[in-house]
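Researcher: I'd like a structural prediction for the single chain below. Treat it as a standalone chain; there are no partners to consider.
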Amino acid sequence: MYYTSGKDVTVTIWEKGITFHAKIEKWNHNEVIVNEKNNRAKWTFPYQDVLKGKIKISPKRTH
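Model: Treating it as a single chain, here is the predicted structure.
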């Protein structure tokens, strides 16, 4: 699973029960960096957490 920089996504952090819309800033085999859209917070996640399913990153759906 891999998304390019600039892609709009939905991020779910299962342990904290948080879901938000973000834009991918950087994605490599060490870390994933996203910018949250609502409050412009920058989140950094270890890539291994994404692979293990602790963090779910999916394409943002438009209705």
